[in-house]
Amino acid sequence: MRDGHIHTPYCPHGTADSFKSYIEKAISIGYDTMTFTEHAPLPTSFVDPVPEKDSGMALAEVESYLSDINRLQKEYKDDISIQAGFEVDYIEGYERETETFLNRYGPELDDSILSVHFIKGNSQWYCIDYSPNMYEEALHDLGGSNHLYQAYFNNLRKSAEADLGAYKPSRIGHMTLIRKFKDLYPSPPGWEVRAEQFLKVLKEQGLELDYNGAGLQKPHCKETYPPKSIADQASSMGLPLVYGSDAHAVSGLKQGFSEIDPRILSFNR
């Protein structure tokens, strides 16, 4: 069992659950491999649009974060494979700052994720998974669901195609995060076409896909990111799918896994 998307006590919007509590729980439920992918610090020139300004970990804590993981890799080397990583935000226009960060810390990483959380509207930036209210603001600013989905999938494509240097993450995170509030704000007709087109981009770029179970626990979503039909299509195209719990607490490990067909997962990098 491999989980390629796990957060840590360094997450400013997560929990204080310790690294050891994550690891001991992972071992107890049968994990063979786990990747800690804390939200990387946002580019210093980017203003976090969420009120708490807590979307990414503090830059000053990165060295400590990596040191903790390195120590635990050695401590648990006979029990479980622990990989060091980040969930890196792709933010259009901030590619060079992102590349600089990756060039600095990439040599210390084993496995990472590249995700889109932020969309630029006509008046401001939005974190599209922060809250229903912020999502609705983005919806109005961009002129409706069709335009918002277009902007989101355009950013996904740009993230996959972006030149972020030698240490660019090899996996795209939760590709249908835009549907987190779909029961409140329905997806536009034909949105699946954009998703299917994006799978072709992933194939061309040789990237993996985060098959994320967290959406099943979200009250207005109740589906994986991506949903099963798109995951099946990705698998049929030969795209590697890596399960991610996206746990922000120990209790989140293995979330959604029972709804995922393990036959389409890639267990080996």
What is the number of E strands?
Answer: 9
The string of secondary-structure elements, in order, is EHEHEHEEEHHEHEHE
Describe the strand arrangement of the main beta sheet, using strand numbers.
Answer: 1-2-3-4-7-8-9
The chain-level structural class is alpha/beta
Percent of residues in helices? 25-40%
> Low-confidence segments, ≥5 residues, pLDDT <50?
none
Number of helices: 7
* Overall 3D shape: globular
* Rg calculated over all Cα atoms: 17 Å
Major beta sheet summary: 7 strands, parallel
Provide a descriptive summary of the structure in words.
- With 269 residues, the protein is α/β, with parallel strands linked by helices.
- The protein has helices at 19-28, 62-75, 95-105, 132-142, 145-161, 191-205, 228-236, and strands at residues 2-6, 33-39, 81-89, 113-115, 118-120, 125-127, 171-172, 208-212, 241-244.
- The strands form 2 sheets. The protein has a 7-stranded parallel beta sheet with strand order 1-2-3-4-7-8-9. Strands 5-6 form a two-stranded antiparallel sheet.
- Helix 1 (19-28) links the parallel strand 1 and strand 2 (33-39).
- Helix 4 crosses helix 5 and helix 5 (145-161) runs parallel beside helix 6 (191-205).
